[in-house]
User: What shape does this take?
Amino acid sequence: MRVLGIESSCDETAFAVVENGVRVLSNAIASQIDLHARYGGVVPEIASRAHLEAVVAMHRAALQEAGVTMDDIDAIAVTRGPGLSGCLLVGTEYAKALALRHGKPLIAVHHIAGHIDSVNIGRTATAWGDPVEARAAFAPYVALVVSGGHSSLVHVRGPMDFLVLGETLDDAVGEAYDKVAKLLGLGYPGGPAMDRLAGEGHPQAFDLPRPMVHSGDYNFSFSGLKTSVARTVEKHRAESGARELAPRFLADLAASFQAACVDVLLRKAARALEETRVGRLAITGGVACNRGLRAEAARRFPKVQIAIPASEFCTDNAAMIAGLGGVLGGEGLRSGLGLNALPGLGLGDEGRWQE
Ligand code: KG4
Ligand code: ZN
Assistant: This one.
Protein backbone atom coordinates (compact mmCIF):
# COMPACT_ATOMS: atom_id res chain seq x y z
CA MET A 1 0.00 0.00 0.00
CA ARG A 2 1.48 3.33 -1.11
CA VAL A 3 0.20 6.38 0.73
CA LEU A 4 0.57 10.07 -0.06
CA GLY A 5 0.77 11.99 3.23
CA ILE A 6 -0.08 15.67 3.70
CA GLU A 7 0.93 17.77 6.74
CA SER A 8 0.13 21.48 7.15
CA SER A 9 -0.78 21.92 10.82
CA CYS A 10 1.77 24.62 11.65
CA ASP A 11 4.55 26.23 9.61
CA GLU A 12 5.71 23.34 7.41
CA THR A 13 4.00 22.44 4.13
CA ALA A 14 4.90 18.79 3.72
CA PHE A 15 4.04 15.95 1.32
CA ALA A 16 5.52 12.44 1.41
CA VAL A 17 5.07 9.01 -0.13
CA VAL A 18 5.42 6.00 2.20
CA GLU A 19 5.10 2.33 1.30
CA ASN A 20 3.39 -0.21 3.60
CA GLY A 21 3.44 2.18 6.57
CA VAL A 22 7.22 1.92 6.75
CA ARG A 23 9.43 2.74 3.78
CA VAL A 24 9.79 6.45 3.05
CA LEU A 25 10.04 6.99 -0.72
CA SER A 26 9.97 10.79 -0.46
CA ASN A 27 9.74 13.50 2.17
CA ALA A 28 9.20 16.97 0.67
CA ILE A 29 9.05 19.95 3.03
CA ALA A 30 8.67 23.69 2.47
CA SER A 31 9.59 25.47 5.67
CA GLN A 32 8.21 28.92 6.46
CA ILE A 33 10.86 29.76 9.07
CA ASP A 34 12.12 32.81 7.13
CA LEU A 35 8.58 34.26 6.91
CA HIS A 36 7.98 34.05 10.67
CA ALA A 37 11.50 34.75 11.97
CA ARG A 38 11.07 38.52 12.09
CA TYR A 39 7.98 38.13 14.29
CA GLY A 40 9.76 35.72 16.64
CA GLY A 41 7.03 33.09 16.23
CA VAL A 42 4.44 31.64 13.86
CA VAL A 43 1.81 34.12 12.61
CA PRO A 44 -1.26 31.97 11.78
CA GLU A 45 -2.61 34.14 8.94
CA ILE A 46 0.78 34.31 7.20
CA ALA A 47 1.22 30.57 7.72
CA SER A 48 -2.05 29.55 6.09
CA ARG A 49 -1.41 31.79 3.06
CA ALA A 50 2.08 30.35 2.67
CA HIS A 51 0.62 26.81 2.77
CA LEU A 52 -1.74 27.72 -0.07
CA GLU A 53 1.18 28.97 -2.14
CA ALA A 54 3.31 25.87 -1.47
CA VAL A 55 0.90 22.89 -1.69
CA VAL A 56 1.01 22.27 -5.44
CA ALA A 57 4.80 22.46 -5.64
CA MET A 58 5.29 20.18 -2.61
CA HIS A 59 2.76 17.67 -3.95
CA ARG A 60 4.72 17.50 -7.23
CA ALA A 61 8.06 17.33 -5.40
CA ALA A 62 6.94 14.36 -3.28
CA LEU A 63 5.70 12.39 -6.32
CA GLN A 64 8.82 13.22 -8.31
CA GLU A 65 11.25 12.29 -5.52
CA ALA A 66 9.42 8.96 -5.08
CA GLY A 67 9.36 8.38 -8.85
CA VAL A 68 5.60 7.80 -8.90
CA THR A 69 2.43 9.35 -10.32
CA MET A 70 -1.01 9.64 -8.66
CA ASP A 71 -1.92 6.35 -10.41
CA ASP A 72 0.61 4.58 -8.16
CA ILE A 73 -0.91 6.02 -4.96
CA ASP A 74 -3.41 3.84 -3.07
CA ALA A 75 -4.63 6.30 -0.43
CA ILE A 76 -4.26 9.88 0.79
CA ALA A 77 -3.52 10.54 4.48
CA VAL A 78 -3.86 14.01 5.94
CA THR A 79 -3.31 15.70 9.31
CA ARG A 80 -6.74 16.59 10.64
CA GLY A 81 -5.58 18.14 13.93
CA PRO A 82 -4.46 19.42 16.32
CA GLY A 83 -2.97 22.56 14.83
CA LEU A 84 -3.76 26.01 13.51
CA SER A 85 -7.22 26.05 12.01
CA GLY A 86 -6.48 27.93 8.76
CA CYS A 87 -3.34 25.86 8.21
CA LEU A 88 -5.07 22.52 8.75
CA LEU A 89 -7.85 23.58 6.37
CA VAL A 90 -5.42 23.98 3.47
CA GLY A 91 -4.23 20.38 3.94
CA THR A 92 -7.64 18.79 4.47
CA GLU A 93 -9.29 20.61 1.55
CA TYR A 94 -6.40 19.76 -0.78
CA ALA A 95 -6.54 16.11 0.34
CA LYS A 96 -10.29 15.95 -0.28
CA ALA A 97 -9.90 17.46 -3.75
CA LEU A 98 -7.21 14.89 -4.61
CA ALA A 99 -9.31 12.02 -3.25
CA LEU A 100 -12.28 13.12 -5.35
CA ARG A 101 -10.28 13.84 -8.52
CA HIS A 102 -8.32 10.56 -8.44
CA GLY A 103 -10.91 8.33 -6.75
CA LYS A 104 -8.60 7.43 -3.82
CA PRO A 105 -9.57 6.70 -0.22
CA LEU A 106 -8.96 9.40 2.36
CA ILE A 107 -7.50 8.69 5.82
CA ALA A 108 -7.41 11.25 8.65
CA VAL A 109 -4.36 11.22 10.94
CA HIS A 110 -3.76 12.84 14.32
CA HIS A 111 -0.62 15.02 14.26
CA ILE A 112 0.80 13.86 17.60
CA ALA A 113 -0.02 10.23 16.82
CA GLY A 114 2.07 10.79 13.68
CA HIS A 115 5.00 12.01 15.83
CA ILE A 116 4.56 9.03 18.18
CA ASP A 117 4.58 6.64 15.23
CA SER A 118 7.57 8.31 13.52
CA VAL A 119 9.96 5.75 15.08
CA ASN A 120 8.38 3.14 12.80
CA ILE A 121 9.29 4.78 9.49
CA GLY A 122 12.59 5.15 7.68
CA ARG A 123 14.28 5.38 4.29
CA THR A 124 16.06 2.04 4.73
CA ALA A 125 15.67 1.05 8.40
CA THR A 126 13.41 2.47 11.12
CA ALA A 127 14.52 3.95 14.44
CA TRP A 128 13.92 0.50 15.98
CA GLY A 129 15.96 -1.25 13.29
CA ASP A 130 14.64 -3.63 10.64
CA PRO A 131 11.60 -1.98 9.00
CA VAL A 132 9.41 -5.02 8.37
CA GLU A 133 10.06 -6.62 11.75
CA ALA A 134 9.59 -3.37 13.63
CA ARG A 135 6.12 -2.83 12.20
CA ALA A 136 5.08 -6.46 12.33
CA ALA A 137 5.98 -6.83 16.01
CA PHE A 138 4.37 -3.60 17.14
CA ALA A 139 5.50 -3.77 20.73
CA PRO A 140 4.21 -1.36 23.35
CA TYR A 141 6.47 1.57 24.20
CA VAL A 142 6.62 4.78 26.14
CA ALA A 143 6.71 7.82 23.87
CA LEU A 144 8.17 11.12 24.96
CA VAL A 145 6.81 13.60 22.42
CA VAL A 146 8.66 16.89 22.63
CA SER A 147 8.12 19.69 20.16
CA GLY A 148 7.24 23.35 19.79
CA GLY A 149 3.54 22.68 20.32
CA HIS A 150 3.41 19.71 22.69
CA SER A 151 5.26 17.85 25.43
CA SER A 152 3.65 14.56 26.38
CA LEU A 153 4.45 11.18 27.85
CA VAL A 154 2.30 8.49 26.31
CA HIS A 155 1.96 4.75 26.89
CA VAL A 156 1.57 3.43 23.35
CA ARG A 157 -0.22 0.07 23.41
CA GLY A 158 -0.97 -0.13 19.69
CA PRO A 159 -1.07 2.11 16.57
CA MET A 160 -4.42 3.51 17.74
CA ASP A 161 -4.24 2.77 21.44
CA PHE A 162 -2.76 5.58 23.52
CA LEU A 163 -2.81 6.22 27.23
CA VAL A 164 -1.72 9.82 27.82
CA LEU A 165 0.29 9.69 31.07
CA GLY A 166 1.11 13.39 31.27
CA GLU A 167 1.32 16.64 29.35
CA THR A 168 2.70 20.13 29.77
CA LEU A 169 0.53 22.43 31.83
CA ASP A 170 1.88 25.56 30.13
CA ASP A 171 4.67 25.98 27.56
CA ALA A 172 5.82 23.03 25.46
CA VAL A 173 9.54 22.36 25.88
CA GLY A 174 10.33 23.54 22.32
CA GLU A 175 8.37 26.72 23.01
CA ALA A 176 10.48 27.27 26.14
CA TYR A 177 13.63 26.76 24.05
CA ASP A 178 12.38 29.29 21.51
CA LYS A 179 11.47 31.87 24.17
CA VAL A 180 14.76 31.53 26.03
CA ALA A 181 16.66 31.75 22.74
CA LYS A 182 14.82 34.98 21.92
CA LEU A 183 15.71 36.36 25.35
CA LEU A 184 19.38 35.54 24.70
CA GLY A 185 19.21 37.12 21.23
CA LEU A 186 19.68 33.87 19.29
CA GLY A 187 16.85 34.30 16.72
CA TYR A 188 13.94 32.03 15.76
CA PRO A 189 13.47 29.08 16.05
CA GLY A 190 15.93 28.95 18.89
CA GLY A 191 16.15 25.22 19.62
CA PRO A 192 19.03 24.34 17.28
CA ALA A 193 21.04 27.48 18.24
CA MET A 194 20.54 26.78 21.96
CA ASP A 195 21.62 23.18 21.42
CA ARG A 196 24.88 24.32 19.74
CA LEU A 197 25.59 26.93 22.41
CA ALA A 198 24.83 24.49 25.25
CA GLY A 199 27.59 22.25 23.91
CA GLU A 200 30.12 24.99 24.74
CA GLY A 201 28.95 25.75 28.30
CA HIS A 202 28.91 24.22 31.77
CA PRO A 203 25.59 22.54 32.65
CA GLN A 204 26.12 23.19 36.39
CA ALA A 205 27.08 26.86 36.03
CA PHE A 206 23.61 28.05 37.10
CA ASP A 207 21.35 26.28 39.53
CA LEU A 208 18.04 26.42 37.63
CA PRO A 209 14.81 24.86 38.95
CA ARG A 210 13.48 21.44 37.85
CA PRO A 211 9.75 22.30 37.75
CA MET A 212 7.33 19.60 38.87
CA VAL A 213 9.98 16.96 39.18
CA HIS A 214 8.47 15.84 42.52
CA SER A 215 4.83 16.37 41.50
CA GLY A 216 4.13 12.65 41.62
CA ASP A 217 2.52 12.69 38.19
CA TYR A 218 3.72 12.80 34.59
CA ASN A 219 2.87 16.42 33.83
CA PHE A 220 5.40 19.08 32.90
CA SER A 221 5.71 22.82 33.31
CA PHE A 222 8.36 24.92 31.59
CA SER A 223 7.23 28.53 31.95
CA GLY A 224 8.82 28.93 35.43
CA LEU A 225 12.15 27.73 34.09
CA LYS A 226 11.97 30.38 31.38
CA THR A 227 11.25 33.07 34.01
CA SER A 228 14.20 31.85 36.05
CA VAL A 229 16.47 32.27 33.03
CA ALA A 230 15.11 35.79 32.51
CA ARG A 231 15.92 36.69 36.14
CA THR A 232 19.44 35.28 35.79
CA VAL A 233 19.95 37.52 32.74
CA GLU A 234 18.63 40.61 34.57
CA LYS A 235 20.87 39.93 37.56
CA HIS A 236 23.89 39.46 35.30
CA ARG A 237 23.16 42.74 33.50
CA ALA A 238 22.75 44.60 36.80
CA GLU A 239 25.98 43.18 38.21
CA SER A 240 28.15 43.50 35.13
CA GLY A 241 26.71 46.83 33.98
CA ALA A 242 27.13 45.63 30.36
CA ARG A 243 24.23 45.49 27.88
CA GLU A 244 25.87 42.81 25.75
CA LEU A 245 25.84 39.34 27.28
CA ALA A 246 29.32 37.79 27.34
CA PRO A 247 29.78 34.62 25.21
CA ARG A 248 30.87 32.59 28.28
CA PHE A 249 27.74 33.66 30.20
CA LEU A 250 25.49 32.80 27.25
CA ALA A 251 27.00 29.35 26.78
CA ASP A 252 26.82 28.52 30.50
CA LEU A 253 23.22 29.67 30.75
CA ALA A 254 22.21 27.70 27.62
CA ALA A 255 23.93 24.59 29.00
CA SER A 256 22.25 24.99 32.42
CA PHE A 257 18.84 25.53 30.82
CA GLN A 258 19.29 22.46 28.63
CA ALA A 259 20.41 20.37 31.61
CA ALA A 260 17.26 21.38 33.54
CA CYS A 261 14.93 20.54 30.61
CA VAL A 262 16.61 17.22 29.88
CA ASP A 263 16.67 16.27 33.57
CA VAL A 264 12.93 16.87 34.05
CA LEU A 265 11.98 15.11 30.80
CA LEU A 266 14.08 12.04 31.52
CA ARG A 267 13.19 11.73 35.21
CA LYS A 268 9.51 11.61 34.28
CA ALA A 269 10.27 9.20 31.42
CA ALA A 270 12.15 6.96 33.89
CA ARG A 271 9.08 6.75 36.13
CA ALA A 272 6.85 5.99 33.15
CA LEU A 273 9.16 3.19 32.03
CA GLU A 274 9.17 1.77 35.54
CA GLU A 275 5.44 1.97 36.06
CA THR A 276 4.40 0.60 32.65
CA ARG A 277 7.19 -2.03 32.74
CA VAL A 278 7.78 -1.29 29.09
CA GLY A 279 11.39 -1.70 28.05
CA ARG A 280 11.17 0.61 25.03
CA LEU A 281 11.35 4.38 24.86
CA ALA A 282 10.63 6.48 21.77
CA ILE A 283 11.69 10.13 21.79
CA THR A 284 10.03 12.10 18.99
CA GLY A 285 9.11 15.64 17.86
CA GLY A 286 11.40 18.57 16.98
CA VAL A 287 13.18 18.65 20.35
CA ALA A 288 14.19 14.99 19.84
CA CYS A 289 16.87 16.48 17.53
CA ASN A 290 18.53 17.87 20.67
CA ARG A 291 22.01 16.42 21.11
CA GLY A 292 21.99 16.82 24.89
CA LEU A 293 18.69 14.95 25.20
CA ARG A 294 19.83 12.14 22.89
CA ALA A 295 23.13 11.61 24.72
CA GLU A 296 21.65 11.82 28.22
CA ALA A 297 18.82 9.38 27.39
CA ALA A 298 21.37 6.80 26.24
CA ARG A 299 23.46 7.39 29.40
CA ARG A 300 20.54 7.13 31.84
CA PHE A 301 18.77 4.13 30.31
CA PRO A 302 21.43 1.61 29.30
CA LYS A 303 18.97 -1.30 29.57
CA VAL A 304 16.12 0.33 27.67
CA GLN A 305 15.71 0.05 23.90
CA ILE A 306 15.68 3.70 22.83
CA ALA A 307 14.44 4.82 19.42
CA ILE A 308 14.85 8.35 18.14
CA PRO A 309 13.98 9.04 14.49
CA ALA A 310 16.39 10.68 12.05
CA SER A 311 16.13 14.48 12.36
CA GLU A 312 14.07 14.82 9.16
CA PHE A 313 11.34 12.69 10.81
CA CYS A 314 11.57 14.46 14.21
CA THR A 315 10.56 17.95 13.08
CA ASP A 316 7.15 18.28 11.39
CA ASN A 317 6.96 16.17 8.25
CA ALA A 318 4.42 14.30 6.12
CA ALA A 319 6.23 10.94 6.13
CA MET A 320 5.00 10.27 9.67
CA ILE A 321 1.44 11.06 8.51
CA ALA A 322 1.71 8.77 5.46
CA GLY A 323 3.32 6.05 7.63
CA LEU A 324 0.55 5.93 10.22
CA GLY A 325 -2.01 6.50 7.45
CA GLY A 326 -0.77 3.30 5.81
CA VAL A 327 -1.33 1.32 9.01
CA LEU A 328 -4.80 2.77 9.58
CA GLY A 329 -5.70 2.25 5.92
CA GLY A 330 -4.53 -1.38 6.20
CA GLU A 331 -7.02 -1.78 9.05
CA GLY A 332 -9.76 -0.56 6.73
CA LEU A 333 -10.19 2.91 8.24
CA ARG A 334 -11.50 5.57 5.84
CA SER A 335 -12.78 9.13 6.06
CA GLY A 336 -15.64 10.56 4.06
CA LEU A 337 -15.30 13.61 1.81
CA GLY A 338 -17.12 15.60 4.50
CA LEU A 339 -13.91 15.51 6.55
CA ASN A 340 -13.24 18.78 8.37
CA ALA A 341 -10.18 20.07 10.22
CA LEU A 342 -10.26 19.64 14.01
CA PRO A 343 -7.79 22.15 15.56
CA GLY A 344 -8.38 20.84 19.11
CA LEU A 345 -8.40 17.10 18.33
CA GLY A 346 -7.23 15.15 21.39
CA LEU A 347 -4.97 12.11 21.35
CA GLY A 348 -7.54 10.13 23.33
CA ASP A 349 -10.24 10.86 20.73
CA GLU A 350 -9.23 7.94 18.46
CA GLY A 351 -12.84 7.15 17.70
CA ARG A 352 -13.34 10.62 16.23
CA TRP A 353 -10.43 10.69 13.80
CA GLN A 354 -12.28 9.36 10.76
CA GLU A 355 -15.79 10.55 11.69
O1 KG4 B 1 8.01 19.06 15.81
P1 KG4 B 1 8.28 20.47 15.40
O2 KG4 B 1 8.90 20.70 14.07
O3 KG4 B 1 6.98 21.33 15.40
C1 KG4 B 1 5.93 21.20 16.28
O4 KG4 B 1 5.08 20.28 16.08
O5 KG4 B 1 5.91 22.02 17.21
O6 KG4 B 1 9.18 21.10 16.57
C2 KG4 B 1 9.73 22.39 16.46
C3 KG4 B 1 10.40 22.73 17.77
C4 KG4 B 1 10.86 24.18 17.87
O7 KG4 B 1 10.43 24.71 19.10
C5 KG4 B 1 12.39 24.07 17.81
O8 KG4 B 1 13.05 25.10 18.51
C6 KG4 B 1 12.62 22.74 18.47
O9 KG4 B 1 11.58 21.92 17.98
N1 KG4 B 1 13.92 22.16 18.12
C7 KG4 B 1 14.90 21.94 19.02
C8 KG4 B 1 16.02 21.43 18.31
N2 KG4 B 1 15.66 21.35 16.99
C9 KG4 B 1 14.37 21.79 16.90
N3 KG4 B 1 14.94 22.13 20.35
C10 KG4 B 1 16.06 21.82 21.00
N4 KG4 B 1 17.17 21.35 20.38
C11 KG4 B 1 17.19 21.13 19.05
N5 KG4 B 1 18.30 20.66 18.45
ZN1 ZN C 1 4.63 18.54 15.40
Q: What stands out?
A: The first strand starts at residue 2 and ends at 7.
